[in-house]
Amino acid sequence: MTRQKAASKGAAAFWKRLGPGLITGAADDDPSGIATYSQVGASFGYEILWTTFFTFPLMVGIQVVSARIGRVTGDALAANIRRHYPPWATVAYQAVVPSVSFDARCVVAAVAEFGTTISPYLFFWQASQEVEEQRAAKGDGTLKNAPEQAHLQLKRIQNDTYVGVGVSNLVAFFIMLAAVVTLRCCPLDV
């Protein structure tokens, strides 16, 4: 087999292994995300593009955890939360939120971006997708019942999520960049 055919076969196999992580990552660039990224880029220019380098690992972390919860338990996130945690009013009462004071407009923009990028519905979606994938695949079990599948499945989840979140954050970065260069009223600061 030639190198080109081997590379093509490897690339096809790679794309075939992707699933809930890629779908969830792509879904993150929804209309609210596009609107937020465009407004942030147009308002703040290049000075806020750095945030995508922080949303990437944060989003990967939470999405991998969500996917693992679904795959290990065989239940989506909502079912696990109901089983293990008190009602959400109790949690909100006990929560501690740090207070950081910077320029108000920039903080609001960063919060909006983080909020739209690391969206709670995605946690539920990816955990549910993992459950559906596991149930649809013959021979696959929940990892609590089939721990021998853990290494392969958790590696797949990690790779899938990194690609999905990477695509999502690249799209967000370039939406903000496009807004910077087309909608920002200030001259380019080089």
Q: Could you explain the architecture of this structure?
A:
With 190 residues, the chain is an all-alpha fold. It has one domain. It is built from nine helices and no strands. The chain has helices spanning 3-17, 20-27, 31-44, 51-73, 77-84, 88-94, 104-117, 120-136, 150-183. Helix 3 crosses helix 9 (150-183) and helix 4 (51-73) crosses helix 8 (120-136). The longest helix has 34 residues, at 150-183. It starts with a helix and ends in a 7-residue tail after the last helix. The mean pLDDT is 82.
Silhouette: flat
Count up the domains: 1
Mean pLDDT: 82
Largest sheet: none
Secondary-structure content class:
mainly alpha
How many strand units? Answer: 0
The residue ranges in which pLDDT falls below 50 over 5 or more consecutive positions are none
Q: How helical, in percent, are the residues?
A: over 70%
Q: Hey, roughly how much beta strand do the residues contain?
A: under 5%
Separation, N- and C-terminal Cα atoms: 49 Å
Number of helices: 9
Sketch the topology as an H/E string, one letter per element: HHHHHHHHH
- Taking all Cα atoms into account, the compactness measure Rg is 20 Å
Descriptive key words:
190 residues; 0% strand
SSE blueprint and pairings:
Layout: H1 3-17, H2 20-27, H3 31-44, H4 51-73, H5 77-84, H6 88-94, H7 104-117, H8 120-136, H9 150-183
Give a short overview:
With 190 residues, the protein is an all-alpha fold. The chain has nine helices and no strands. The protein has helices spanning 3-17, 20-27, 31-44, 51-73, 77-84, 88-94, 104-117, 120-136, 150-183.
